[in-house]
Amino acid sequence: MGNGFALAISITLLPNTTVPLIACGCDDNRVTLYVENEQHQIVKVQTLTGHEDWVRGLEFALSDSGSIFLASCAQDHFIRLWRISPRRGDDVLIVPKAVSELQEEEDIRVKERLFAVIDNDEEKSTFAVTIEAILSGHEGWIYGVHWQPAVYTDGKRHQPMCLISASMDKTAVLWRPDLESGIWLDEVRVGEVGGNTLGFYGCQFSPSGHSFLAHGYQGAFHLWHKSQKTNFWEPGPTVGGHFDEVQDIDWDPEGGEFLVSVSLDETTRLHAPWVRAGLETNWHEIARPQVHGYGVTCLAMTGRYRFVSGADEKVLRAFRAPKNFVENLTRISTVDTKHVLERMADIAEGASVPALGLSNKAVFSSEDAVENKDLEIQPHPNEQYPELYFKPVQLSGSTALKDMELIVFV
To answer: CA 401, 193, 357, 372: dihedral to nearest 10 degrees?
Structure first.
């Protein structure tokens, strides 16, 4: 490999042999193929070019036709599909002609890269590598590709031609070839809109292929299930929690029905039971009242829906729950909050986190009269879409915990 670095690697066995095939994606924008020779040494057999930036992800899949498909993704925003097929007899000697040399009845043949291996029985096998497709649809670096796992029915193996990809553009895309034309198309596109996340760093199918998972830079998981009723992909709840040292915790002072924690991961998180009819009640992270720019080190609850936190910048900040959170807490944990809403007439509808700001800003509905104008968010002249600061979220059903990042306190 010289002085470069391997950023991705995948391994499989060549069809009808016991010879391992290794693919390495490197920082030289190439995919290099290695095999084990008869002296049990790993040797390079082919270099696949085409990507214009670092190769970040690789994965093999054995198709029903006996060919191997290799998916490679890179920082150039493209996915390339390579077909590795066995060649026997006269097929090895066929040399592709130039388009100008073709007869009317002849088809255009894709340029092939050939390599040969010798198995344990000293039988020589030849394989051809061709480009199958180039998938375009992402607008950011692509960090992961993963094939849908093979399905076994009555002892027969079937490999679905389905691929999932994850990108820094905050989307995961499901790719599948069209049944009539064979052209690979993006069948499903899921992900996030807005926010301060950095996109997805990888993805993985479930063994059944009915779910897939994507993960982000700060450790967040994003899960989608295929609904058997609607045939749509719907978001589902995942595990969550702090990814750095937890510095302080405090309980709800009026009944201990939820717990608030602060951490050096620069967030304050609220944990409460998720009550569902006919299912076991479990505790989950349901909100992030504070997303800060410094590690949060201390916390004190001053009321059921008020708390004060301190961070590394040595400033205390007081927060109060907005109406949107109180209503969602009732839906998720069945906490009685009717008397709270009646008592808090001037409660804000929600809160927003301005760009480059450390303090949440109150957002009031158009029906609410606010006497203190200082509490209202003041749109900057450069902001073209001030109405996008806050959008009420109703957390219920299977999507209840997916949007918890959107809930912040005033």
So the answer is: -80
> Which of 31-35, 197-201, 340-344 shows the lowest mean pLDDT across its residues?
340-344
Query: Is residue 272 within 8 Å of residue 333, measured between CB atoms?
Result: yes
Q: pLDDT grade, residue 213 (50/70/90)?
A: very high
Are the C-beta atoms of residues 363 and 347 closer than 8 Å to each other? no
- For residue 120, is pLDDT > 90? no
pLDDT at 379: 54
pLDDT at 367 over 60: no
Tokens of residue 194, six digits: 């807005």
Per-residue pLDDT at 383: 47
Give the 3-state secondary structure of residue 232: coil
- pTM, two decimals, is 0.71
The whole-angstrom separation of Cα 212 and Cα 214 is: 7
Tokens of 235: 């978001």
CA distance linking residue 63 with residue 294, whole number of Å: 50
Sequential DSSP letters for 331-395 = HHH----HHHHHH-TT--SEEE--TT-SS-EEE--TT---S-GGGS----TT-S-GGGG------
Element (H, E) at 325: helix 323-333
CA gap 365, 216 in Å, rounded: 32
Report how far residue 171's alpha carbon sits from residue 174's, in angstroms, rounded to the nearest whole number.
10
Assess contact for 145 and 59: CB atoms under 8 A.
yes
293-313 pLDDT, tens digit each = 889 999 999 988 889 999 988
